[in-house]
Amino acid sequence: MSDRISHDQLPPHYDAELPSEPLMFSIGSFITPPLVNFTEVQAHLKLLSAFNKLKDDIQRSAVATSGPDQSEPGLDPERAWVVFVNQAAHRFDKFMSGKLAGEFPRWSEETIPPLDVIMVWHTYLLNPRTYYDDSIRRTTPFARRLAAMETMPVSLIASLIDPVTFEPAMPSYQRESYFETTSGLPFMYSQEITTNGVVSLTCPCCNAFNSTVPWVTSEGKGFGEPNFEHTCEECSRTFTRSMMGVRKFCEEFTRRRAGRRVYFAETILDPMTGKQETMLADMLTIRIIRRIHAVFKIPKGCEQDNIVSESMGLAKALNWSTQELSVYIHQGIRPRKKAHTYDAPLPRVQRLIAAYSNAGYASIDLVAAVLRQGSFIKKMKDLGWLESGYCESNNAQGSLFRAIARYHAFLDLMTVKDHSFLVPTLDIDLVWHTHQLSGAFYRSETLRLLKRTPNHDDTVQPVTLQGGFDATAAAWKQRFGVPYSICGCMPDDVAAPKSKSIIPSRGSKSSGEKKAGSKFGFFKKQKTPASQVHSDGSTIRSETTVSDTPRNELIVEEPNEMDTTHPSEHNLYLQKVPIRLTFATRGSEPVVTVGGVETDLIARELASKERVASIRQGLESTNEKAAPVDPWRKLQAERKSTRMDHREAFTTPDQLAGVYHPYWGLNAAVPFGFYGAFKYSDAVGGCSNGCASCGSAPGLFAFNA
Questions:
Q1: CA 420, CA 548: separation in Å to the nearest integer?
Q2: Which of 84, 176, 612, 700 is surrounded by the most beta carbons within 10 Å?
Q3: Pairwise CA distance, residues 400 & 431, whole Å
């Protein structure tokens, strides 16, 4: 591209000098200290490095085990990792459901679980609403321990990881003893995934203990594989994960009948805000219970000693079927809306059924969530942020402080785009994840600042993700005056006029004076009346004015750091869908409509090239009346033209398929927001045949002729 942009045309460069004064950030009408600090992000990166090292070790071990000198055949690396994650999720369940006598002990080295369990716990916390929901809707040991472990001591955990090799430190005797006493399992996990490993499970049909359930079978039906099936050693009935999930629902149903404090999943939190709403939960739970009582003529009360037997009877009456359960839940929640087996379930019903269509105590598929998180960890590795010594380097200080500032700006954007689907960039997503690891603090601060707790939905359709990112970029540019991403993807569209709904008028009053506190312009000192300081001294209320001055400190100039502003795509979680051809006629002329994911990908790349051509045309124009090209758009177009190896976001089919799909039965037939429903072939939302019962539109996976 001609007339290359120079640094004198851009805002000044900010070096990595650390600020010496207290930091303050504007979020909506509040001015607040940082919600995430440098030390926490640094520790989180170290933890992600350990997870990445763990995966490499498991996959290398699988290759070694399957060598010619080994007597026992091994698994291919990807499949071995999926089996290992299943084992880690099982160990997490055992640890979290162990007996908890008295209060949970204070965090110390001896109470930290092993790395594989930490990995599952980490992913669970990154689904903040589900984690909170599971911790308050029951009074079981699992729920109590979830509540006690709602804040991960990430700095303490990072101190137990070698900073060079990222190997976990050798545990003390007390640490091993605490985990083994609580879970009944050995502290050290096996890195060799073999075909003869077994696990003990309880049959959902007869409650018999099956001690020899294989993790892996030649037919792909082990407990660590997507098509799990096992024939009970006692009743000879074949059971699956979804059958175990239905039994979990029946036990909660029966415990409620017995007078226990139980709410069904997806009922106790307000979907819009994430606040606890027990009145709504009571209403929904009672409606579901009444409907099932009416259908199966179940008595209202239940003796404590009969909980197991009566829950088994209800599961049998439901035929252990999530589809049948879905109909009764629908009829209970919406009694006036007639439900048919061929209708798509209501969104709340879909989410509720998804919570009861897998084994384990969690109402989210932790295995699939960990596998999805692996994509984000790989992005961090590709950026070089997981390298040994990175966080101690001078570059890291500037990059991570800027990422923290951009995250607070992202939250500020949420205050004015409260009904929009905002998509983070990689650097913002890292800090967002770090914030979510402090579950109680994340919930309380976001409720106070945003009036809601943003959920981190990591199962989003590609078209939704593309549109969400474009809308985020436009709103960011409008509010802050700088581009959102400058990694080499699609340049921004022509800037729209500033809207009153986005930028407050200049006439609004400011109760405090903002001054730059350091070379990083995003660190603010506040002069504010003492009456506006909260009792804890942590936050100041202000009628904040958004200036027309661009927030230049929020943009990354350095070429070696621009990839940090690439869209975070780990939540792009769908299979590649075939192109759909629809034939029709308009008058006498045939009309062919082409649709599907492939065409969306092509359209994205074409639109990106068109914007670059438009910018080039503007630069080369001799028309004096033409508006000058925005320098930032000029830089974006230059970056797009020169970085031929940079992949345009949301346009790689492989990104849709994912390496784990062959082993985990994941699919695309789920509407936006149906997180956790990407599961197994026998679960609602888990098939790929386009049937209406799982929530997909008929014919989605077929050619329409």
A1: 23
A2: 84
A3: 9
Instruction: Supply the Cα-derived Rg of the chain in whole angstroms.
Output: 27
Amino acid identity, residue 424? P
SS3 of residue 333 by DSSP = helix
Q: Is the pLDDT confidence value at 88 over 90?
A: yes
Do 201 and 333 share a domain, yes or no?
yes
461, 577 in Cβ contact below 8 A? no
Contacts for 164 with CB less than 8 Å, ≥ 6 apart = 388, 389
- Report the b/e string of 602-638 with b at 16+ CB within 10 A: eebeeebeebbebbbebbeeeeeeeeebbebbbbbbb
**Band (553; pLDDT cuts 50, 70, 90):** confident
Q: For residue 208, give its domain range.
A: 195-361
Distance separating alpha carbons of residues 478 and 412, to the nearest angstrom: 13
Which region, left, alpha or beta, applies to residue 274 given φ > 0 means left and ψ of -120 to 50 means alpha?
Answer: left
Same structural domain, 256 and 299: yes
Strand bridging mode 209-214 / 580-586? unpaired
Torsion of CA 137, 141, 144, 149, to 10 degrees: -120
Q: What is the pLDDT of residues 465-510, one digit of tens each?
A: 777 888 889 899 899 988 898 887 777 777 544 433 333 333 333 3
Is residue 325 within 8 A of residue 104, CB to CB? The reply is no
Relative to beta strand 30-32, strand 540-541 is: antiparallel
Instruction: Return all residues near 47 (Cβ < 8 A) that are at least 6 apart.
Output: 118, 122, 154, 157, 158, 161
DSSP 35: S
pTM (whole model) above 0.85: no
Residue 203 lies in a domain: yes
Q: Tell me if 332 sits within 8 A of 317, measured CB to CB.
A: no
Distance of CA 210 to the CA centre of its chain: 33
Residues contacting residue 360 through CB under 8 Å, at least 6 positions apart:
89, 90, 93, 366
Q: Does 437 reside within a domain?
A: yes
Residue type at position 113: P
pLDDT confidence of residue 338: 64
Query: Among 320, 337, 361, where does a domain finish?
Result: 361
Tally of domains within the chain: 2
| Cα-based distances in Å from 311 to 203, 248, 260 | 13, 9, 14
The rounded distance, in Å, linking the Cα atoms of 227 and 76 is 17
Are 354 and 227 in the same domain?
yes
